[in-house]
Design a protein that fits this description.
The relative contact order is 0.25. The radius of gyration is 17 Å and the shape is globular. Helix 2 runs antiparallel to helix 3 and helix 5 packs antiparallel against helix 9. It has one domain. About 80% of the residues lie in helices and about 0% in strands. The protein starts with a helix and ends in a 5-residue tail after the last helix. The longest helix is centred in the last third of the chain and has 33 residues. By secondary structure, the chain is an all-alpha fold.
Length: about 200
Amino acid sequence: MRPDLLLAFMTYAFVTSITPGPNNTMLLASGLNHGFVRSVPHILGISLGFAAMVFGVGAGLGRLFLAYPFLYTTLRVVGAVYLLWLAWQIATAQPLQETSAPGRPFGFWKAAAFQWVNPKAWIMAIGAIATYAPAEGGVLAVIVIAALYAVVNAPSVAVWAAFGTTLRRWLTDRRHLRIFNIAMAILLVLSLYPLLSGQASQ
């Protein structure tokens, strides 16, 4: 990959990874409710699961959506329903002070699997391959792009979990914590809007 193309891609990966979206909203809530360390599997699941998606798109999986548009429509519906369910789980999460066994954070495999039903992640992956993968690069170029995306993505999304952990020190009041969780749930629901406009954020 040429240096100028590499710089452009890294910028694209950073901006799409660190801006608000379903993954980062859930990590913010996870950092607050479970702490940073317990959120690490969630972070790794997002980054490696998304890298696998980028590779899959580069290997030709994305062409299925062009050949069979109903598959993408189905994906959008499934992803939207799942996001609504996650929003409900966050909104109704019990504050840490109210239970000795708080809900479990997203594990690695669950976070990785979520990428495959996240329509925004598909938009990001297809955009990365369509824009930055050299036509003559072959499989090696796709592997490089997927790996670089994971390298940029992991610390970018980790910032949100770290921020949530910082907020944990301040939101010790049960009422304030409940309000925060409800606000995160609302943001997660609002993150469905870009599906209609074609914008992508992590």
